[in-house]
Amino acid sequence: MTAVWIIFGLVALIVVYFWSLYNALVSLKINIEEAWSQIDVQLKRRADLIPNLVETVKGYAKHEKTVFTEVTKARSALMGAKSLDTKAAASDLLTSALGKLIAIAEAYPQLKANENFVQLQKELSDTEDKVAYSRQYYNSVVLDFNTKIRVFPNNMIAANIGFSAKEFFGATEEERKSVKVNFN
User: What residue ranges carry the coiled-coil annotation (predicted)?
Assistant: First the structure.
């Protein structure tokens, strides 16, 4: 009779372990989805600011058409992107195009003094900070999830119940290049 209770206890422990592991993995997966959603919200906010910024700069720098076209194409690519990889690539493309747009603005002192432009630049800077924070949070949640599914004995169970490692949000080759500062 004691052997039956021991077996019953072991089976109950195994069931509780599987149940808690599954629930923990589901919770972490939902956290990853929420973290990606936060990145998406900030990317949308940035994309919404861009037409106003472009129009403000256009008024001062009418001959810089190629940069405006580049920014518009990059924004469209971001708005049309569906997957994490395509959104990340489009976001990086947009960041590069915005850098060129801001560089153009530097050549026009009256534009730099324009209240609308200054406000848009502040909002864009704030949004870039939020995008960076959202990416960090996403990577933190992905780290927790990936660790949970790779440690023993979870690694033997997680793959069998449909959980696989998630990709981190990484820097592009362009972002990894060292910045050269020249004051001449």
Answer: none
The two structure tokens encoding residue 41: 């919200």
In terms of C-beta density within 10 A (0-12 exposed, 13-18 middle, 19 or more buried), how is residue 75 classed? buried
169 Cβ contact partners less than 8 Å away, ≥ 6 residues apart: 39, 84, 88, 135, 138, 139, 142
Q: 57-83, pLDDT tens digit by residue?
A: 666 666 566 777 777 788 788 778 877
- The pTM of the full predicted model, rounded to 2 decimals, is 0.64
Rg, Å, the chain Cα set: 24
Domain 30-159 part of CATH 1.10.10.410: no
Q: Where are the domains of the chain?
A: 30-159
Angle, alpha carbons 152-167-158 (nearest 5°): 30
Q: Which residue has the tokens 């870039």?
A: 128
CB 106 within 8 A of CB 64: no
Q: Which residue do the tokens 């999830």 mark?
A: 145
Q: Which residues of 4-42 are buried (b: 16+ CB within 10 A; e: fewer)?
A: eeeeeeeeeeeeeeeeebeeebeebbebbeebbebbeeb
